[in-house]
Prior knowledge:
Number of strands: 10
Distance between the termini: 49 Å
Helix content: 25-40%
Amino acid sequence: MNAPLPVNDPLVIGGRAYNSRLLIGTGKYKDFDETRRAIDESGAEIVTVAIRRTNIGQNPNEPSLLDAVPPSKFTYLPNTAGCYSADDAVRTLRLARELLDGHDLVKLEVLGDPKTLFPNVIETLKAAETLVRDGFKVMVYTSDDPLIAKQLEEIGCVAVMPLASLIGSGMGILNPWNLQLIIEAAKVPVLVDAGVGTASDAAIAMELGCDGILMNTAVAAAKNPVLMARAMRKAVEAGRDAFLAGRMPRKFYTASPSSPTEGVIGGTSAAPKKAG
């Protein structure tokens, strides 16, 4: 008998459950109205905010994201985009906690250089230690190195977020084998962060067993961001269902008819004989 279909399959991060496994960024849209429409279409409950680039109250005379995307409806995930040292990242997230009335769920990223935006894992580890000690619930962007991912988990990060490929590249998953190693070893959620370009990339990541995906450019830079947000929602859901269902084994050069061959009317189960 087949197992019952999953009714409730939440993503649990930092002790809180979420129905959506798609996290979405709030940058790079043409305006806050498009941002909100894309978020709504994506079904995302967690939205990430670059504190250095988006106004959430630090500039009182400018339009605020808080009005378009109210924290009463969405869980904010302040991030440290644009930080290149542990000190800058820690300072930025402490500011975010003040602006958001003690909010403690954050995304840490410490970049290595402005060209590739590859993570500086040494500074990331250092910042993670400080932030966890300060009481933050840290979701952390990192390389796809399984050893670094495990170290970040052991420090106390509530989720590890390895890249699929470089930020904003849209190249998809370049090293599924490393992601698989990280997923198999982790006791905290593993979310792909960076590199997803289209819906099939998202589905593949979820089929591998990722707990969720965070994306921004793939949606915001699409010709129709709102429609792409809808596509990403469906892809994440389909990929998760496929992972839970368990795919059929791959069989190299082994034919397996989808219909039974025994008892076929007017047929025979014997192999045809050679002529002559």
